[in-house]
Amino acid sequence: MSEVGDLQVVLDALDVLVRDRRPELYPRFRPGVSARELDALAAGLEPYYLPAELVALYQWHDGWDSSRDGVHRSLLPEAEFNSLAETIAAYRGWQQALGSDGWHPLWFPAFGSQFGELVSLQLEPGRPAGQVYAFHSEEDLSTSSDSVAALFAAALDCWRRGLLPEDAAYPEIRTIAARHNPSSRKPSGESRHEISRSSTTDWPDSWKKALGIGPLVGAADEEVVRIADFEGDPSSGRPIRAELTGWGGSIDTLVATASDGTGSVKVLLTRSETENFRELVGGRRFDLWLVPTGEQTSVDELARAMSHIAVVPEVPYVARRIVPL
Q1: Are 97 and 109 in contact, with CB atoms under 8 Å apart?
Q2: In this predicted structure, what is the pLDDT of residue 305?
Q3: Res. 301 pLDDT band, cuts 50 70 90
Q4: I want to staple 7 with a disulfide (CB 3.0 to 4.6 A). Which of 60, 133, 149, 290 is the partner?
């Protein structure tokens, strides 16, 4: 596989360079894991699989001790190379803390813990990792490296220029990273694209498939009715096409205003009742399928939760389904 071959060339060159130029740092490399050890650790990730590049990487070296003897030295720019066991533990920690709505089960933080770079686990064994994404505990993802090989190629370039392992020569390091990753970074080193943790609009197909998320299909134009007409016959079940602006709520429940030029109406959206709730991003247009709120249990719960800061307005409709346009 060319991805693994390209990576192996870079890894071999980096290994020789560190050993020859900075022999005092070479012990920071941990010994590679055996095929048996790797299989045992990776079994805990099933039904997902390590991409082929990571299999080769951990057999090369099982991480780099960046803080050995209390002195920090970086192997990679803006990222860590932790052991496979440490990375699996971090992966489990993200899943437990955020769940699938905040951390996707395919996101594997191979080069960081609280922040760093992640690659995608695969739905089948032996598949390449694809693009590498920067992650942070408080931010969306962003494109970082075109491949694992490109990530390490940028690191090798920095080592050859003497910019690593001290990892302090910015913005030069970012500029070098950009040259090795033109699809992921602008020439200045900034990310080219951000990818929402929640909305699936820009997700690769494998990310959607792993969560059972199908195509987001909007309503046919002839099915859509204006808000003014919908309110005249709310039992019709026909969708409206409107701009949604948030009023307030919680991580699982939101009251929003739907507007289309003929009128506006308050709408309740909840994680349990609204299909595609995770696609909700303020200031966008949606096709919405609404039904009367009924007993308003969710509205009442929200009103109680927000009673100390605001009065929840009357909400006549629940969105059963939304599709971003």
Answers
A1: no
A2: 52
A3: low
A4: 149
Q: What is the pLDDT, as a whole number, of residue 312?
A: 47
Q: What is the 3-state secondary structure (H, E, C) of the chain?
A: CHHHHHHHHHHHHHHHHHHHHCCCCHHHEEECCCHHHHHHHHHHHCCCECCHHHHHHHHHEEEECCCHHHCCCCCECCECCCCHHHHHHHHHHHHHHHHHHHCCCCEEEEEECCEEEEEECECCCCCCCCCEEEEECCEEEEEEECCHHHHHHHHHHHHHCCCCCCCCCCCHHHHHHHHHCCCCECCCCCECCEECCCCCCCCCHHHHHHCCCCCCCCCCHHHCECHHHHHHCHHHCCCEEEEEEEEEECCCEEEEEEECCCCEEEEEEECCCCECHHHCCCCEEEEEEEEECCCCHHHHHHHHHCCCCCCCCCCCEEEEEEEEC
β 264-270/317-324 pair status: parallel
Name the residue among 140, 84, 75 with its Cα closest to residue 108.
84
Phi-psi region of 273 (alpha: psi -120 to 50; beta: other; left: phi over 0): alpha
Pick the CATH number of 2-210 from 3.40.50.300, 3.20.20.80, 3.30.465.10, 3.40.1580.10: 3.40.1580.10
CATH of domain 221-324: 2.40.50.140
Which pLDDT score, from 0 to 100, does residue 309 have?
A: 44
- What is the per-residue pLDDT across 141-171, written as a single tens digit (0 to 9) for each? 999 999 999 999 999 999 999 999 987 778 8
Query: Can you give the residue ranges of every domain in the chain?
Result: 2-210, 221-324
Quote the pLDDT of residue 176.
Answer: 96
pTM of the predicted structure, to 2 decimals: 0.85
Supply φ then ψ for residue 215, to 5 degrees. -60, 145
